[in-house]
Amino acid sequence: MTTTTKLDEINWGIIGCGDVTELKSGPAFNKVEHSHLIAVMRRDKEKAADYAKRHGVPKWYSHAGQLINDPEVNAVYVATPPDTHAIYAIEAMKAGKAVYVEKPMARNYRECQEMIRVSEETGMPLLVAYYRRSLPAFLKVKMLVDLGIIGKPLTVHVRLHKPYGEKDQFPQKQSWHVNPEIAGAGHFYDMASHQLDYLDFVFGPITEVKGIAKNLSGFYRAEDTVSAAFAFSSGVTGTGSWCFVVNEESEEDIIEICGTKGKITFSCFRHGEVHLQLSGETTSLSFQNPENISHLLIQQVVHALRCEGKCVSTCYTAARTSWVMEEIVKQFYDISI
User: Fold this and answer.
1) pLDDT surpasses 90 at 189
2) CATH 1.25.40.890 given to domain 136-288
3) Regarding the domain with residue range 10-130, which homologous superfamily does it belong to in the CATH classification?
4) What gap in Å lies between CA 119 and CA 9, rounded to an integer?
């Protein structure tokens, strides 16, 4: 990404200081050198004020425009649901602010493209919160693949099967995650985006993809069961199976990478342990994540904004993931890409 901006001290403002910012990301902005969380915004004034008080944030707002136009804020973290990612990111970049946005990057690939266009037009950096690209266990898997420990990688298989939640059954209780107007699709976009983005990191861009998406439960309008086949630029092929309405006994979360000499298996959401199978023996490796799961990626973001390094999760890599997901579900939603 070409930018015209180099920041010395990064003064962050968060738009959407909800649950995802409480532990996963919010506190990390003050733990990285040259990084400071100075303002937060939430439409609910009381909740915004409460968050600021509990986290020691000097300023809070109830309107995004107020935070974006705060002259002391020079970088904005957009942590709202996906339907406003593009709106707030574009407004912030046009106001001369660097942007770090939650995943998925936007509701659809078209919005991602527009965000990239504004980033390139304004010279403002645009980075995305796919933090698995920075976590120890996931870096170990990539290293094992890159070093050829399992030989030439051949295939990767993803399975994520989760029980439906009680709220899924009742329209009045359902979260925005199953409202396509807000999320872009269903739980698939929220969760599979992590897996597909990480595999892009390991094997390069997915260049071929076919998918089938269905709603088999009838709980909500979004898809709840998805199957896909795909191929990467590196030649590796893969399959994926996602279902969000299984019973508890059928719950599964696994990524399996097979090579000519061995196999690596690991979890995407219970991350921390990697299993390496070679010559009939299995070695299990355990890793410790930071207290704030986004800390290591936020550190990369700060280094990138200070022109001291690169961030592994950019608007370009994130947009590729959105393209892949849209290809997989496009027939279900009758999307023309």
Assistant:
1) yes
2) no
3) NAD(P)-binding Rossmann-like Domain (3.40.50.720)
4) 20
